[in-house]
């Protein structure tokens, strides 16, 4: 059966390409996604973005027992949301946390993540390439 990976982007990430391009680059996420899809013909990539914490929780609940992995960039909710951390613990799919910017080189409030301990690993500061690397890892890993 074809593997399925859920990519979740949280608040303000719908503005990628327009938002602070010096930090986040000038490419929209949908455009990036189109370029990586052909690299993973054996994976069904499912993409969800929301600015609303509850909608992110609902999507993790809805698909987190069925997909083979979750790539999550929860944006600023990373630094605030115990609920998202609990949701990642609740579901069976392994998750990888991604941040486009190097959060450790930025304000100290970005240094702590509630999600990291619930994820297999974390990729920060490698730009959009971080998503691709996370997908590659989840495809390799047999754990669910
Ligand atoms: C981010 C880093 C967060 O601190 C910030 O709130 C974001 C984007 C990143 O991808 O670098 O919205 O998650």
UniProtKB/TrEMBL annotation:
EC number in record: 4.2.1.10
Sequence positions that bind substrate: 73, 79, 86, 100-101, 110
Catalytic activity, reaction form: 3-dehydroquinate = 3-dehydroshikimate + H2O
Coiled coil: none
Alphabetical keyword list: Amino-acid biosynthesis, Aromatic amino acid biosynthesis, Lyase
Pfam families reported in the protein's UniProt record: DHquinase_II
Keyword Acyltransferase: no
Enzyme class: lyase
InterPro entries reported for this sequence: DHquinase_II (IPR001874), DHquinase_II_CS (IPR018509), DHquinase_II_sf (IPR036441)
Site (described: Transition state stabilizer): 19
Pathway: Metabolic intermediate biosynthesis; chorismate biosynthesis; chorismate from D-erythrose 4-phosphate and phosphoenolpyruvate: step 3/7
Active site as annotated: 24 (proton acceptor), 99 (proton donor)
HAMAP family: AroQ
Family recorded in the similarity comment: Belongs to the type-II 3-dehydroquinase family.
Record note on quaternary structure: Homododecamer.
Role, per record: Catalyzes a trans-dehydration via an enolate intermediate.
Protein name per UniProt: 3-dehydroquinate dehydratase
